[in-house]
Amino acid sequence: MEQLASTWWLILIRGICAVIFGILAIIWPAITVFVLVIFFGAYALVNGIFTLVSAFRHNVESRAWLIISGILGILAGIVTFVWPGITTLALLYVIAFWAIFTGVAEIIAGIRLRKAIDNEWMLIIGGLLSVIFGVLLLIWPASGALALTWLIGTFAIVYGIAIIMLSIKVKNLA
């Protein structure tokens, strides 16, 4: 605990950075979406390159799959940089379908578990909200991008405040 308490300020900096990121995401949602898309493109490109290097440096059975995965990653990165708007829309659709499918799974799990657990209705409500969120993203993707940015920003602020409070508690442990 003493080691953790001696670095309380690192936890504080993490919290402050999260709050600043959250505020900036809410103030500049369009820039935030663009930056997230560019970061995705950079990640996909770098990951694709390293996957290809790995495929050719290591003699593994799945070399063909690694090569395919690497090429797809590089292509995804290039497409992101060439057409960031299309990439943004595609990512929103991925999030929308993910929300719908996980929501349906939560509803089914809640129904099946109603005799085994208490308050299964919360799982069903959570699943229903997830489905609604996914459908709304499909209907209004531009508004969905804005809402996602605000959601990310709000989460970052709340998370940052929690981390700042944790840093104060950790500091008091010393």
TL;DR?
89% of the residues lie in helices and 0% in strands. The chain has 174 residues and is mostly helical.
Structure description:
The protein is mostly helical. The chain has one domain (2-35, 84-171). Helix content is 89%, strand content 0%. It contains 7 helices and no strands. The chain has helices spanning 2-6, 8-27, 29-57, 63-82, 84-112, 120-139, 141-171. α3 runs antiparallel to α4 and α4 crosses α5 (84-112). The longest helix has 31 residues, at 141-171. The N and C termini lie close together (8 Å). The model has no long low-confidence stretch (mean pLDDT 88).
Average the pLDDT over all residues and give the rounded result. Answer: 88
Number of domains: 1
Helix percentage range? over 70%
As a whole number of angstroms, the C-alpha radius of gyration is 21 Å
Order of helices and strands: HHHHHHH
Q: What oligomerization state is this entry in?
A: single chain
* Structural class determined from secondary elements: mainly alpha
Q: What is the 3D shape?
A: globular
Biggest sheet record: none
Report how far the terminal alpha carbons are from each other: 8 Å
Task: List the uncertain runs.
Answer: none
How many strand elements? 0
Tally of contiguous helical segments: 7
Report the sheet-strand fraction: under 5%
Protein name: HdeD family acid-resistance protein
Keywords: Membrane, Transmembrane, Transmembrane helix
Organism: Nonomuraea mangrovi
Pfam families: DUF308
